[in-house]
Amino acid sequence: MMSPRSDANQPLPEVTLPTCPSTRLLKNQKALVTGANSGIGRAIAVALGHAGADVVVNYLHGEDQAREVAAEIEHCGQTAIAHRADVSNEEQVQGMFRKMIAAFGTVDILINNAGIQKDAPFDEMTLEQWRTVIDVNLTGQFLCAREAIREFKRRGVVKEVSCAAGKIICISSVHEIIPWAGHVNYAASKGGVMLMMKSIAQEVAPYRIRVNSIAPGAIRTPINTAAWETPKAYDALMELVPYRRIGEVEDIGRAAVWLASDHADYVTGTSLFVDGGMTLYPGFSTGG
Ligand code: BGC
Prior knowledge:
38% of the residues lie in helices and 13% in strands. It is of the alpha/beta class. The chain has a single domain, classed as Rossmann fold, CATH 3.40.50. A seven-stranded parallel β-sheet has the order 3-2-1-4-5-6-7, sandwiched between helices. Strand 4, helix 4 and strand 5 form a beta-alpha-beta unit. The longest helix is centred in the middle third of the chain and has 29 residues. The N and C termini lie close together (11 Å). The N terminus is likely disordered. The site of beta-D-glucopyranose has 9 residues, from loops.
């Protein structure tokens, strides 16, 4: 890779991110966040709670963490339920939606977040590694989206709550468009999420249902510790990030609140890249 311009190498100040949105953009709305016990899912669940939504905090492993997230949401005056379900299991997904509808009456917002990586060089990738990633990252999003759409269509628009009959946000990745050697299963799952999201969006737009993705870049979470935990790894990562800082989970939480809210009412079928410019072909900043 070409070396970046020298002024682009100057240290940049640490950022202090605002934590709690001052307006309750999602007042009276009911949200389900999958994989909400840690990382990006956790931050989104908390941000939705701060914005006035009641939240189902889905988890598969990490019950204690999920209960902590629920407690944090209740601390903002909302109701939260931690619920264990494997998003790749049809019965468990249907059971989770039944429980949510029994407890909250409906579902207004689905955040399809649960996702995993099982990395391997391509010729060493096992069928199990391939299948598990596709099952969780793609089939899991399909199963949850299908249940949400059924409920959105059944209920329709309740204009006191939202302009839309429902909102789905798929948590994708920059790797829905950036190929990723050594992570073929993951990139294939996220490429799949992109066209699944757009196709569902096209199909359900006439029902006033909005379906979008957030495509995060490198966000400081447990999934990619190796990419940021040492100064050497962090510096190498910054070569890929024109904005010259790692993303924080709150960057994604705030984007999700906006995209789920009526402020984004005319936005459907789009991927919102929250990536500090990772998708801007940073290798071309000095070359080409
Ligand atoms: C992956 C991370 C990676 C980031 C940028 C994400 O989707 O889960 O491991 O650091 O993309 O490459």
